[in-house]
Amino acid sequence: VPYMLGKDRIIFATKEDHETPSSAELVADDPDDPYEEQGLILPNGDINWNCPCLGGMASGPCGEQFKSAFSCFHYSTEEIKGSDCVDQFRAMQECMQKYPDLYPQEDENEEKEKSSKDLEATPMEASATKEERGSS
């Protein structure tokens, strides 16, 4: 299940995804940062909160909620990985909604409503046109 976080969509990888070598190249912003080039997961299996790939999510007003949710997911042993982390992700989302400037929300429901209204409007207009033709 992809979670929407601001303009970025976080998609959680499966075990299989991790077994295939990545073709992504990380460009280090700070060559002096020892964690910069380690990637998201450190050699000891811990999460590298300094990884630029997190886009600064681990800092900021909702950093603690993000770390809690992400850690829970990372260490989850549930069959559906992360299914035991719903509360942490909800807390993170609720925090982010308090800071819309920092974490712009792409409101999926709003989009769905717009498109379903457009779809509803079209057949009604079409049927109205038919009735007018029939009565004239």
UniProtKB/TrEMBL annotation:
Keywords: Disulfide bond, Mitochondrion, Oxidoreductase, Protein transport, Redox-active center, Translocation, Transport. PANTHER family: COILED-COIL-HELIX-COILED-COIL-HELIX DOMAIN CONTAINING 4 (PTHR21622:SF0). Residues 62-98 form the CHCH domain. Residues 27-36 have a biased composition (Acidic residues). It comes from Ramphastos sulfuratus. Residues 17-37, 100-136 are annotated as: Disordered. Its main location: mitochondrion. GO terms for biological process: mitochondrial respiratory chain complex assembly; protein import into mitochondrial intermembrane space. It is found in: Mitochondrion intermembrane space. One of its GO terms (cellular component) is mitochondrial intermembrane space. InterPro entries: CHCH, CHCHD4. It comes from the Eukaryota. This is MIA40 protein. GO terms for molecular function: protein-disulfide reductase activity. Residues 111-120 have a biased composition (Basic and acidic residues).
